[in-house]
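In the design runs reported in the main text, the only information available to the sequence generator was the tokenized backbone. The following block is the verbatim input for one such run; it is reproduced so that readers can re-run the procedure and compare outputs position by position.
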């Protein structure tokens, strides 16, 4: 059993230890503790990785969409060039009539608009309804 005379001595030791710890924390600061430094590094790394990944994934998505749109556009151009060769071989030279025949036979995908411009002016579109930007 602990006698009563040892209790004040232990209380003084604990108080002295707390004072030293408080002095150490005041001198070194709150950021000296390992838990705080680990949390700060963890937060910095997470912010860094997220900050880098968002532009990288955005760029990848834009590149994929651009590639898909360009591929579809190249397919439409090749289809029109083939149709144009067939029409000119038959002796048709009126560009407006060629566009009319092409758009009559061509079925565009959803949200795709084929627009014919002859001599710098709108001639026709397929489907009949145009995007709201072009409706005038």
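Verbatim output:
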């Amino acid at each position: 059993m602990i006698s009563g005379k040892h209790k004040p001595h232990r209380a003084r030791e604990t108080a002295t230890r707390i004072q030293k710890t408080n002095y150490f924390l005041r001198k070194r600061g709150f950021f000296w503790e390992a838990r705080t430094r680990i949390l700060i590094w963890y937060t910095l790394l997470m912010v860094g990785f997220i900050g880098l990944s968002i532009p990288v994934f955005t760029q990848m998505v834009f590149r994929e969409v651009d590639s898909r749109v360009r591929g579809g556009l190249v397919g439409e151009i090749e289809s029109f060039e083939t149709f144009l060769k067939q029409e000119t071989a038959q002796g048709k030279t009126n560009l407006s009539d060629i566009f009319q025949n092409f758009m009559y036979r061509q079925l565009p995908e959803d949200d795709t608009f084929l627009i014919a411009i002859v001599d710098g002016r709108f001639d026709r579109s397929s489907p009949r309804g145009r995007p709201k930007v072009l409706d005038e």
